[in-house]
Amino acid sequence: MRGFKVVSFFEDKGINIPQRKTKASAGYDLEAAIDVVLNPGEVKLVPTGVKAYMPEDEVLLIYIRSSLAVKKGLLLANGVGVVDADYYDNPENEGHIMIPLFNPGKEPVTIRKGERIAQGIFTRYLKADDDEALGQRTGGFGSTGQ
């Protein structure tokens, strides 16, 4: 089983569950949960208001929507986002997916609530033969690097 749910802070705030737009689309469109202005040279975490659940051997990869990159000149600050299965319902932020956008331009860029900003693709991953990872996630965004 895999899918999306609205995080508790954004319940009753008009958040749409990510959807694929065509039957051959790989990605689920993620929308901005609030209006955000990105000033030139600025990186901001744009809230989506959703979290993703999936089996332990899957990951949700986050990519910027090509239309956002081309039309507004924005970049995904980390290149590709990785949402691990154990990020869901973590005690720090409930698994809230935040999209780190970077504005390399010379003018401010406005993102409006409901604007599709990224796409998430669920995929399985493989483990090395000698993998012995036994740690437990205790934090939210960026916590596996601690």
UniProtKB/TrEMBL annotation:
KW Hydrolase (keyword) present: yes
Domain dUTPase-like: start-end pairs: 15-145
EC number: 3.6.1.23
Reactions this protein catalyses: dUTP + H2O = dUMP + diphosphate + H(+)
Top-tier EC class: hydrolase
GO biological process, one term: dUMP biosynthetic process
InterPro entries noted in UniProt: dUTPase, dUTPase-like, dUTPase-like_sf, dUTPase_trimeric
Highest rank taxon of the organism: Bacteria
Keyword Hydrolase assigned: yes
One GO molecular-function entry: dUTP diphosphatase activity
Keywords: Hydrolase, Nucleotide metabolism
Sequence similarity: Belongs to the dUTPase family.
Protein name: dUTP diphosphatase
